[in-house]
Structures are given as structure tokens and as C-alpha cells.
Amino acid sequence: MTQPLLIVGSYLSPYVRKVLVLLELKGVPYRVAPIVPFFGDEDFGRLSPLRQVPVLVDGDLALNDSSVICQYLEERYPEPRLYPQDIARRAQARWLEEYADSRLGQVIIWQLFNQLVIGRSVWGREPDQEVLRRTYDEDLPEICSYLEGQLPEQGLPFGELSIADISVACFFRNAQFARYRGDAQRWPRLAAWIDTVLAEPAFVRLAAFEMVAARTPIAEQRAALLAAGAPLSERSLFRDEPVRGPMSRC
User: Which residues have a Cβ under 8 Å from the Cβ of 4 and sit 6 or more positions away?
Assistant: First the structure.
């Protein structure tokens, strides 16, 4: 019997969420080893040399980086297709995935979510108000205006749900946890797009476990997720004290 895939990472990570959404949409069995990467043990460090999530473990294969993992899943489990078939449109979708992973990652995760959530819960640090001011006044409006210009008047940019929709929506889900929603009057196409994608059943199923993680202290999250019925791995990769990884910006 084929073993479920193992995904290492937090339900609150947009990069982990992207992979889990693909698994949900493709109907692939999986288990999650839920950790905030700062709390990963030595085994986690061996699986993820940059101490970042997600990690996918498929038998003897361990993969890092959400985009690498998603491409692997698309090729191994091709139905339903989540990358456009046309080569030009597929390249455009991959660009929006990269824009999400890099630019939205920088602003929504490392500036907004890090200041308001990670810094407080992991390091006990209060937000840098100047970073937040620049994020709200400059960076987020620039992102929203760019994305607004990439969208059709109605519907999804590639017709059917794709990696582009999933990638961008994953980061705006974290923005919601940090209590940011773009102005729907200023960016109506973007607001409608994000609402449509986050209403997909795959996102809704994961949202229940995200709320458990968001409301629970880090050390207690595994037990709380188990109680909520999350598909967890038997083994934990958790350590008691946080450690910064080589690529950490915290």
C-alpha cells in the first residue's frame, strides 16, 4: 500500500498552504508534520538545510521549496491540471507564482505578518512601526495596483483555477490573519479574485486547521490539531526552543 506523502511545515505558512491546496485538489493522500520552522529539530534541519518549509517527503525523496514541490506534484499527479496547457499562458502563471513567492513573501510575510504575528509569538518582540507604515502606505498599495492590472474584468486570469490563483491567494490569506484586506473599491478585481479563490473547498477545508493553529500557542499546536482531526504524521519534528535558520530575516 502506498504511504501518504509527508508535508513538513505550519498550516499558517503560505508556502505550505500552496502545497496542501494542490494535494487537496488532486486528491492525493498526505500527512502533515506541523512545525513552525524555527522550532524544527535536528531531523528537520537534515531534511531542510535552509530550515524553511515546506518539505515534501515521498519515500526516499525529500524536496524543498514550494514551487519545486508543486511542479513535482503536477507532473506526478497531472489531474486536474493546475498549470495552463498553453506554453505562454503557463509561463505567465509561473510568473505570478514567482511574484507571489518573492514580492508578496517579502511584504506580506516578512514585513506585515512577521511584525504583527511571528515577532510577537516566537521572539516576544513588538512591531517596528516604521516598517508597518511603509508596508501599509507604500508596499501593499503597489502590490495591489499591480495585481489589479493583471486581472480580467471577471473570472480567473487563466479561465480555470491555476497555480497563479492559488499562489497569490495563499499570501492574502496571511494578510487576513494580520487584519489587512485591500480596499475593494480601489482594487475591485483583486478583491473579487481573492474572495473567489479562498472560497474554493480546498481552501475552506484547510482554513479550519489554520484557525486552530492561529489560536493555539506554538508548543500546543500539535495536540490541538490532532483533536481537530488534522491529518498529522505519527512523528513530531518539534524542538522546545526556537533557532534561527541561515536564511532567517527575523
Answer: 29, 30, 31, 231
For cell 490563483, name the residue: 165
Backbone angles phi, psi at 135, to 5 degrees: -65, -50
CATH of domain 87-198: 1.20.1050.10
Span 30-46, pLDDT tens digits: 999 999 877 888 888 89
Q: Give percent of the chain with pLDDT exceeding 70.
A: 96
Give 125's DSSP letter.
-
Report how far Cα 40 is from the mean position of its chain's Cα atoms.
Answer: 18
Q: Where are the alpha helices (DSSP H) in the chain?
A: 14-26, 42-47, 66-76, 87-99, 119-123, 129-134, 140-150, 163-177, 188-198, 201-215, 221-227
Angle at 138 (CA atoms; ends 135, 139), nearest 5 degrees: 55
Residue 250's pLDDT band (cuts 50, 70, 90)? low
- Identical topology for domains 5-81+201-227 and 87-198: no
Q: What is the pLDDT of residue 163?
A: 98
In total, the chain counts a number of residues equal to 250
CATH of domain 5-81+201-227: 3.40.30.10
